[in-house]
Specification:
455 residues; alpha+beta; conserved putative lor/sdh protein from methanococcus maripaludis s2 fold; Elongation Factor Tu (Ef-tu), domain 3; 4 domains; six-stranded antiparallel beta barrel; four-stranded antiparallel β-sheet; 7 helices
Length: 455
């Protein structure tokens, strides 16, 4: 009897524990079913990434792209039946955002406004010689360089001071011929025979012309007439004042007719060759004022005007050369020096928006316009010139319309996401500018699986 009691009591205790555990499990299952029904009635609870709204999961976690914590996204059946925000959520291409969604997506809007624009074009350039102020000193007669007054490159020269002296037997003979012609003219000028008196004048003119062709100046011919004897050495002068940039001869060297002795450049005026890129060519004109800056001189700028826009495009740099003529007081600008330039071009009054408001898809440019509070629609626009952080709108937008200046790409991604889920298999492609994607071949899965995304 005692043995039976020892067995019976544990059995009764086990039955009671099993009954209590079974009842608790049944209660938990019913509560879970009721919670699922309440959750289904409220809508499916999903989680998405604020930065990548196409990432949608049914459980909390981290975004597989950027690692941000996922936030709740409620897809309410009741909201879908009611047409969403203001009954317009199903409008093609439109995106409706609640206040909380706008805060999470950092969406801000501004009104398009009229403003006077000034386009500022920055360009780099190189200082060059003014080609109209360069000259070569050549020998007009064969001979020997007996004296060289310029001994090095970069030496300053003046057109009134000879750079060299040349001995030429032919020149000496021509001077003697001229002196004899002068004497003959004086002797024959009183002849009663006109042909004889005119012949003396012709000899003088012929000898004089030969001296001029040899490079002898009028002042030198006058000095020859006054002295009455030939000058053994012929002084050679430069056509202009400047600096020597090339020296070709040495003292004592023999030269022939046409040999180059020096190359001279006048640096009082220089050219600056600027590189203008293709997008700015339409508004760059001859005569526009240019401000020149260089790290070689501080404090203040130099000013010049565009004298020529080259008609040729450099195929490697995709730039066009624009020539600026610059006065060069004190020779502050040196040839081959790098400079930066600023060109201010007035564009007049135009409709403008911030640059961040325009989404460039490559084929077209869009802005997101807030047509009603919380409702955004895409608008294709034609843009003009960009000035700083503002861009000119030529068509597609009216003054006073609100455009999204931040969060526009997130709105665009949301529009593509909604378009893809709504029109799957229907052959449409979301808002304007987003066509039906072409079928893609299957690819191998990578760590960032497309199972995490609902495109």
């Amino acid at each position: 009897m005692i043995r039976n009691k020892k067995i019976l009591y544990p059995l009764i205790l086990l039955v009671l524990l099993a009954s209590v555990g079974g009842g608790w499990l049944l209660w938990r299952e019913r509560e879970h079913d009721h919670a699922g029904e309440r959750k289904a009635a409220q809508g499916k609870l999903l989680y998405t990434c604020p930065m990548h709204p196409f990432i949608i999961k049914d459980r909390p976690g981290a975004c597989p792209i950027c690692g941000m914590e996922l936030v709740r996204k409620l897809e309410s059946a009741a909201a879908a039946q009611s047409g969403g925000h203001n009954g317009q959520a199903d409008m093609p291409g439109h995106v409706s955002l609640s206040e909380s969604q706008r805060v999470m997506a950092n969406v801000a809007t501004v009104e398009a406004w009229q403003q006077s624009l000034n386009k500022e074009i920055t360009a780099s350039g190189i200082v060059q010689f003014d080609q109209s102020r360069q000259a070569k000193v050549t020998s007009w007669i064969a001979g020997r360089i007996d004296r060289l007054n310029v001994n090095s490159v970069a030496a300053s020269v003046s057109r009134n001071r000879p750079v060299a002296e040349l001995y030429s037997p032919e020149l000496v003979a021509t001077q003697l011929e001229y002196l004899l012609a002068l004497k003959s003219r004086d002797q024959l000028k009183d002849s009663p025979i006109p042909s004889i008196s005119q012949n003396g004048e012709g000899l003088v003119a012929s000898a004089r012309q030969r001296l001029l062709l040899f490079g002898v100046r009028e002042s030198q011919i006058a000095a020859l007439e006054k002295a009455g004897k030939p000058n053994i050495r012929l002084p050679i002068y430069t056509p202009l004042s400047g600096v020597v940039i090339e020296k070709m001869v040495q003292q004592g060297q023999y030269v022939n007719v046409g040999d180059v002795l020096f190359t001279i450049a006048d640096l009082s005026t220089v050219w600056i060759e600027l590189d203008i890129y293709e997008p700015d060519l339409a508004i760059v004109r001859v005569g526009q004022r240019v401000e020149i800056h260089s790290p070689s001189f501080s404090g203040g700028t130099l000013s010049g005007r565009i004298a020529l826009v080259n008609p040729f495009l450099d195929p490697r740099s995709r730039t066009v050369k624009a020539r600026v003529e610059m006065a060069n007081p004190g020779m502050r600008l040196k040839p081959d020096m790098f400079v930066s330039a600023l060109i201010r071009v007035p564009l007049g009054t135009a409709l403008v928006v911030p640059v961040s408001a325009v989404i460039d898809s490559g084929k077209r440019r869009l802005v997101w316009v807030e047509s009603s509070p919380g409702m955004f629609e895409p608008r294709q626009v034609q843009v003009g010139q960009q000035a700083g952080d503002r861009v000119q709108i030529l068509s597609g937008l009216r003054e006073g319309e609100k455009v999204a200046v931040s969060g526009g790409y997130l709105i665009d991604s949301e529009a593509q996401l909604k378009s893809g889920t709504r029109d799957q298999g229907a052959g449409t492609g979301g808002h304007q500018g987003h066509g039906t994607p072409a079928p893609r071949a299957p690819v191998k899965k990578d760590p960032l699986s497309m199972d995490d995304m609902k495109m």
